[in-house]
């Protein structure tokens, strides 16, 4: 597999002309707050959520043993993709023997840190145990359906989206030959999607591939496949662009390509972002990497229907790149010592944050973003002790709903428009009839229907004056997918928008 990947992923592409320069991209990493996670209030997840998006990372079971990695993962990212733990060779190493222990550990970590989970992956030619590839073709369909049903059922309600089929295409856009095409032809894809949908109708179902980020033969093939699946009414909700880039070679057609997919009525996501370079890394390549990362994030933000960006691994020591692309590395936003690189700063800037060091002489103002508020009285790290009752505040709420037949996700951003910090918040609101919350992130939400209240978690209790916080939830609906309404923050009615 390694050789195959190397051959497939190293074609020299014409250098894309990247016009977007990231203003903050070249700031020294040392200016980004304290500690490896970056400054409080400027986290990638907070900034992404304020824009109705998410920022994810891959995590492996062994990553969970590192306090450095988990500290960054739990604070900077709000979406987790298991690096290997939900793949077939782990989850069903021999026929009918299922092992969800490693995947469960990743899901527990995600829950404990109010992160969502991208399930990865159900049907893939790689990391596929031998017993499947050596089955008689007449038995492959039943094995695939059983695998999909069992795994999706196990994680039902806990997974935001599934990469149902991973990497189905060759570089020229023909369908890859594997155990599944040998047994079922191209029909295995629709069958896998339908099977997954039956097991968890609320999970978003994706097809995921690499080298489909720009316009070209391979993305044309994915586009044709998704059009045809949509026409046939096959449940398909999204396309994952893996985005394993080489510095300076991010396709300039990324945005246009995303837009043609969203026009088909599916979401898109950047699912496995990294941007490799020859190692040791040169200053010029690290600067180009910052430009590339900002370009990718800006492209996603510019396309409604691009739901979020995930990086493949937290830092350079966790990246798969050195093992698969000899001589290459330094592909993530965190260096070998887990210090944020220029790419991290560039992403913060792209997400609307600030990477400048807080200056103690600057006073907090209502228009200041939470990240730039230096006042200790309004800093999230000074959240009130439990004995101080939450007080009311002037507020503003924006909502963003993304819905499908029977389900929806809603992101809510609440801004403290009052003159003092809120320490501990409860946001009450009314859900439209027929909506029932199944899970939430960055807040606890209860009850599930009707007049509900979202309460802060410990890490996001404080909303500085002028600052905002975001949370979201997933709900079932029976036809009315309208946004929640009638918001009150600690008892005070909030303005809309
Ligand atoms: C990689 C993992 O990061 C490695 O640990 C593993 O050895 C091989 O797979 N595309 C995908 C991911 O969809 O699942 C791959 O992950 C990287 C390429």
Automatic annotation (TrEMBL):
Chain residue ranges for the region called Disordered: 355-394
Enzyme Commission number(s) of this protein: 3.2.1.8
Leading EC class: hydrolase
Record flagged with keyword Hydrolase: yes
Annotated keywords: Carbohydrate metabolism, Glycosidase, Hydrolase, Polysaccharide degradation, Signal, Xylan degradation
Domain CBM2: 388-497
Database matches in Pfam families: CBM_2 (PF00553), Glyco_hydro_10 (PF00331)
Amino acid composition bias (Low complexity), ranges on this chain: 357-386
Protein name, entry field: Beta-xylanase
Residues of the GH10 domain: 41-350
Residues making up the signal peptide according to the UniProt record: 1-28
One Gene Ontology MF term: polysaccharide binding
SMART domains assigned: CBD_II, Glyco_10
Similarity-based family: Belongs to the glycosyl hydrolase 10 (cellulase F) family.
Reaction catalysis annotation: Endohydrolysis of (1->4)-beta-D-xylosidic linkages in xylans
Domain of life: Bacteria
Alphabetical GO biological process terms: xylan catabolic process
């Amino acid at each position: 597999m390694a050789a195959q990947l190397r051959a497939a992923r190293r074609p020299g592409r014409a250098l894309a002309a990247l016009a977007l320069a990231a203003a903050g991209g070249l700031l020294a990493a040392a200016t980004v707050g304290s500690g490896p996670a970056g400054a409080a209030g400027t986290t990638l997840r907070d900034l992404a959520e304020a824009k109705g998006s998410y920022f994810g990372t891959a995590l492996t079971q062994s990553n969970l043993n590192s306090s450095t990695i988990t500290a960054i993962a739990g604070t900077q990212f709000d979406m987790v993709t298991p690096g290997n733990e939900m793949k077939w060779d782990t989850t069903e190493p021999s026929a009918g023997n299922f092992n969800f222990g490693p995947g469960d550990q990743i899901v527990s970590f995600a829950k404990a840190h109010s992160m969502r989970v991208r399930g990865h992956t159900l049907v893939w030619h790689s990391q596929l145990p031998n017993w499947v590839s050596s089955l008689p073709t007449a038995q492959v369909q039943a094995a695939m359906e059983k695998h999909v049903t069992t795994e999706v059922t196990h994680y039902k309600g806990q997974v935001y989206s599934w990469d149902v089929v991973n990497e189905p295409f060759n570089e020229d856009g023909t369908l890859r030959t594997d155990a599944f095409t040998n047994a079922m032809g191209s029909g295995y894809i629709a069958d896998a999607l339908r099977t997954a949908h039956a097991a968890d109708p609320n999970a978003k179902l994706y097809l995921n591939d690499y080298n489909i980020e720009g316009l070209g033969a391979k993305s044309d093939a994915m586009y044709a496949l998704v059009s045809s699946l949509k026409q046939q009414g096959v449940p398909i909700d999204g396309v994952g662009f893996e985005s394993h880039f080489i510095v300076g070679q991010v396709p300039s057609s990324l945005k246009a390509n995303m837009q043609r997919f969203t026009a088909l009525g599916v979401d898109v996501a950047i699912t496995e972002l990294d941007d490799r370079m020859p190692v040791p890394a040169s200053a010029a390549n690290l600067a180009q990497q910052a430009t590339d990362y900002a370009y990718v994030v800006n492209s996603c933000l510019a396309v409604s229907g691009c739901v979020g960006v995930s990086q493949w691994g937290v830092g350079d020591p966790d990246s798969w790149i050195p093992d698969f692309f000899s001589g290459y590395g330094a592909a993530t936003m965190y260096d070998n010592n887990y210090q944020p690189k220029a790419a991290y700063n560039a992403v913060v800037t792209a997400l609307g944050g600030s990477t400048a060091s807080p200056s103690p002489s600057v006073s907090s103002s209502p228009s200041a973003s939470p990240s730039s508020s230096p006042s200790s009285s309004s800093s999230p790290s000074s959240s009130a002790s439990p004995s101080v009752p939450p007080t009311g505040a002037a507020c503003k709420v924006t909502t963003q709903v993304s819905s499908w037949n029977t389900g929806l996700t809603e992101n809510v951003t609440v801004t403290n428009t009052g003159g003092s910090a809120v320490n501990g918040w409860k946001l009450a609101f009314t859900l439209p009839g027929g909506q029932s919350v199944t899970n939430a992130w960055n807040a606890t939400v209860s009850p599930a229907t009707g007049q509900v209240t979202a309460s802060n978690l410990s890490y996001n209790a404080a909303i500085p004056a002028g600052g905002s916080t975001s949370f979201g939830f997933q709900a079932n609906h029976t036809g009315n997918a309208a946004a929640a309404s009638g918001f009150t923050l600690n008892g005070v009615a909030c303005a809309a928008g």
